[in-house]
Every structure is written in structure tokens, then in C-alpha cells.
């Protein structure tokens, strides 16, 4: 097998088995083990028992700014099924004014899985990276590694296929 087939096969096997194993690996900081989502301002709530905490509680506004700051449970907002925590009231207001800029992209779905596996997989709340000012979640750390190596492969594929999940355009995916 050539190298591309081997890496695609390996990624496919990892993505297929990882959700079955129920593992939740993470890796720190900006390419960290923290990821998020996005929702429209009209759907934003102060808290929700059903929302999933993403980004391991890190402040998404800080992440987009290139910082790794822990958010507070007292400064939390739920947006499109994901719960975000903020390091300051100012960051919370910034998020609420433009949640699609700071929330996880692609509805929280892994951008690698459709390309490598042909199907969508929800991203793990703690497996994420920030690319060009946007936060992406991944179904497995190997998907994150593949994305970091060649983000345009996965971002362009999502845009061309018009996935059922919204990819924010803005200044481009992060």
C-alpha cells in the first residue's frame, strides 16, 4: 500500500474504534484537548443542564486571542447544545455579541471524519484546535493531528460538500 492509503486506513480505523471505546483523550493548550460549538444569539441561555461543557472549560474568546485561560462556572453560557465558560464578564459579553465567531465550528462535528470516513462524527468536547481564529472539535486526537498537518484539505472539503453543519466564513476558519 502506498503511504496515503496507509494513513487513510489508519485514520479510518482509529475514528471507527475510538467512539466505541468511549475514550476521551485530550491534549492541552491551543491545539489542546479543549474544543467548542456555536449557536445564534436568540438561542443563547445563561445555563443549561443539557448543554455539554466544551473546551475543558477554557474561555473561547481567550483561545481565539491566542491565550489559554480557564473560564468560570459563574460566567457560563449555553449555545447550540454546548456550554462555554469565560474568564471575565467582558469575554462573556464579547461571545454573546458574536457567538459564531467564538463557538466551535461545524456544529461541533469533526471536520476530518467526512473526508476520511465518509460520515460525520461529533467532536469530543476536549479534543480541539484553533485555526485562523476558529475553534474546531475532533472525534479523536488522530483526526486533530491530520487537520493540523493539512487544514485546507478538510476545510475546503466541508465548504465544497456543503455539510449539513454550518461552517462560519467570517475571516476564515481557524
Description:
It is globular, with a radius of gyration of 15 Å. The chain is 35% helix and 16% strand. It is α+β, with helices and mostly antiparallel strands and 174 residues long. The strands form 2 sheets. A 3-stranded mixed β-sheet has the order 1-3-2. Helix 6 (141-149) crosses helix 7. The protein has helices at 3-21, 60-64, 89-97, 99-102, 113-116, 141-149, 151-161; strands at residues 52-53, 72-79, 82-86, 124-131, 134-138. The protein has 7 helices and 5 strands; from the N terminus they run αβαββαααββαα. The protein folds into 2 domains: 3-31 and 104-161, no CATH class; 41-98, no CATH class.
Class from secondary-structure proportions: alpha+beta
The amount of helix comes to 25-40%
Strand arrangement across the biggest beta sheet: 1-3-2
Taking the sheet with the most strands, its summary is: 3 strands, mixed
**Poorly predicted residue ranges:** 3-43, 163-174
* First-to-last CA distance: 33 Å
Percentage of residues in DSSP E strands: 15-25%
**Number of beta strands:** 5
Computed Rg:
15 Å
The overall pLDDT average reads: 75
**Number of helical regions:** 7
Q: Give the SSE string.
A: HEHEEHHHEEHH
The figure for the number of domains is 2
Overall form: globular
Amino acid at each position: 500500500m502506498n503511504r496515503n492509503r496507509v494513513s487513510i486506513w489508519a485514520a479510518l480505523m482509529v475514528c471507527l474504534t475510538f467512539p466505541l471505546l468511549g475514550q476521551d483523550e485530550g491534549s492541552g493548550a491551543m491545539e489542546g484537548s479543549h474544543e467548542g460549538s456555536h449557536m445564534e444569539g436568540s438561542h443563547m441561555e445563561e445555563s443549561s443542564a443539557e448543554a455539554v461543557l466544551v473546551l475543558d472549560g477554557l474561555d473561547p474568546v481567550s483561545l481565539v486571542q491566542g491565550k489559554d485561560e480557564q473560564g468560570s462556572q459563574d460566567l457560563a453560557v449555553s449555545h447550540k447544545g454546548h456550554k462555554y465558560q469565560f474568564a471575565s464578564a467582558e469575554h462573556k459579553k464579547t461571545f454573546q455579541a458574536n457567538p459564531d465567531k467564538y463557538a466551535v465550528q461545524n456544529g461541533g462535528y469533526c471536520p476530518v471524519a467526512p473526508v476520511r470516513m465518509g460520515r460525520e462524527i461529533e467532536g469530543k468536547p476536549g479534543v480541539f484546535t484553533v485555526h485562523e481564529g476558529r475553534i474546531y472539535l475532533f472525534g479523536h486526537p488522530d483526526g486533530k493531528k491530520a487537520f493540523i498537518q493539512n487544514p485546507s484539505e478538510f476545510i475546503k472539503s466541508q465548504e465544497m460538500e456543503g455539510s449539513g453543519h454550518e461552517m462560519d466564513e467570517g475571516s476564515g476558519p481557524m
